[in-house]
Design goal:
The chain is mostly beta strands. The chain has strands at 2-6, 11-14, 31-35. The mean pLDDT is 80.
C-alpha cells in the first residue's frame, strides 16, 4: 500500500497497481505527496511501474574491426 496526500490535505492508502487515486472525502485527484517504498531495480528498467530481472553477464567486443592501435609511449 502507498500513502498518498492530496492537495486538499486529505490522505489515503492506495494499492500499488490500482487505478488513479481520488480523495474519498472531497473527490480531489491532485496528488501533493506520496510515501512509497523505494523501487528495487536490477539490470535495465524503464518506466515507473516496471518489473525487472537479473541480467546474465555477457562478453562484449569493443573492437569489432580487429585490435585497437596502442599509443606510442616513448618520450621523443
Amino acid at each position: 500500500m502507498i500513502d498518498v496526500t492530496f492537495t486538499c490535505d486529505h490522505s489515503a492508502k492506495v494499492k500499488e497497481n490500482g487505478a488513479a487515486p481520488q480523495c474519498q472525502v472531497c473527490g480531489c485527484r491532485r496528488v501533493a505527496r506520496v510515501k512509497a517504498p523505494a523501487p528495487r531495480i536490477r539490470g535495465t528498467a524503464r518506466g515507473p511501474h516496471c518489473e525487472t530481472q537479473n541480467l546474465e553477464p555477457q562478453a562484449v567486443n569493443l573492437a569489432p574491426g580487429g585490435r585497437l592501435p596502442l599509443k606510442d609511449n616513448t618520450d621523443a
